[in-house]
């Protein structure tokens, strides 16, 4: 009696996650990003870096550890690499996607009237600064049409303080030809309420701008819990 035929390697079933990946891609293409949960979008990103493994558990672990999709994308690269199952290559891929997103938001803002695109500006600042672990003091320089002509981080500090130098701010404003600026800094604590030191510093910068006819339109504090506008709080002296 002849032996039963055996299946060669080409007849082996594909790993179970292949069908899942196909279905997830199809949902994304047909339904758009809103049709997927955060961990499913994370899966799509990981597909590119980890083609031969079921990445659903890893995607869920990342969202759980960093709190959200945004938290994963904004996590420091060394913390991403510390997650079991995520290689250096995969961590770099995650950070490069985050960087591309930030760059896109910034390019959408440049050379356009900022005051007419306030919600878009807040989205950009939140994406860029809300998850930072240290304070950064950022200056948005505007021309006479209130178009954004430069966006620069002037200083970086500690987890709860960053210095600001009014004379340097005005010097740079004159160099780029700005007639108005928006001050921005982040609070890593998650609370966007201004401190007494924040208010005093803002008043000093406003005073420094007056001899040069440089207007301070606002001071925005960005945090994970939201943002605060000095102008909306009536704290900005003009």
Provide a concise account of the structure shown.
This protein is α+β, with helices and mostly antiparallel strands and 238 residues long. It is built from ten helices and five strands. It has two domains: 17-103, no CATH class; 112-233, 3-Layer(aba) Sandwich (Cytidine Deaminase, domain 2).
Structural commentary:
It is a single chain. With 238 residues, the chain is of the alpha+beta class. It folds into two domains: 17-103, no CATH class; 112-233, Cytidine Deaminase, domain 2 (3-Layer(aba) Sandwich), CATH 3.40.140.10. The protein has ten helices and five strands. The protein has helices at 16-31, 38-49, 56-66, 69-73, 77-81, 88-109, 118-129, 166-176, 196-209, 230-233, and strands spanning 136-142, 148-156, 180-186, 215-223, 226-229. Strand 3, helix 9 (196-209) and strand 4 form a beta-alpha-beta unit. Helix 2 packs across helix 3. The model is unreliable at 1-11 (pLDDT under 50).
- The level of helicity is 40-55%
Number of domains: 2
In what range is the share of β-strand residues?
15-25%
* Oligomerization category of the chains in this entry: single chain
Q: Write down how many β-strands occur, each being a DSSP E stretch of 2 or more residues.
A: 5
What is the first-to-last residue Cα distance? 99 Å
Which term fits the overall shape?
Answer: elongated
Number of helices in the DSSP assignment: 10
Class based on secondary structure composition and strand pairing = alpha+beta
Contiguous uncertain segments of 5+ residues: 1-11
Q: Label the CATH architecture of the largest domain.
A: 3-Layer(aba) Sandwich
Determine the mean pLDDT: 88
Largest sheet: 5 strands, mixed
Which value, in Å, is the CA radius of gyration? 24 Å
CATH class of the largest domain: Alpha Beta
CATH homologous superfamily of the largest domain - what is it? Cytidine Deaminase, domain 2
């Amino acid at each position: 009696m002849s032996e039963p035929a055996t299946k060669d390697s080409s007849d082996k079933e594909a790993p179970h996650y292949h069908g899942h990946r196909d279905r997830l891609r199809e949902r994304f293409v047909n339904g758009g990003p809103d049709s997927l949960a955060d961990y499913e979008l994370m899966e799509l990103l990981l597909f590119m870096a980890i083609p031969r493994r079921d990445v659903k558990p890893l995607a869920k672990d990342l969202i759980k550890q960093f709190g959200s999709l945004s938290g994963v994308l904004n996590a420091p690269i060394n913390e991403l690499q510390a997650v079991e199952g995520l290689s250096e290559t995969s961590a770099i891929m995650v950070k490069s996607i985050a960087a591309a997103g930030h760059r896109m938001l910034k390019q959408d803002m440049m050379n356009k009237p900022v005051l007419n695109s306030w919600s878009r500006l807040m989205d950009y600042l939140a994406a860029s600064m809300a998850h930072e672990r240290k304070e950064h003091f950022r200056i948005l320089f505007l021309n006479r049409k209130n178009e954004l002509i430069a966006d620069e981080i002037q200083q970086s500090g500690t987890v709860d303080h960053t210095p600001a130098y009014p004379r340097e701010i005005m010097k740079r404003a004159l160099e780029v030809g700005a007639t108005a600026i928006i001050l921005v800094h982040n609070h890593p604590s998650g609370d966007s309420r201004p401190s007494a030191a924040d208010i005093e510093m803002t008043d000093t910068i406003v005073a420094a701008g007056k001899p040069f006819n440089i207007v301070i339109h606002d001071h925005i504090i960005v945090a994970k819990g939201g943002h605060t506008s000095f102008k909306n709080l009536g704290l900005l002296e003009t």
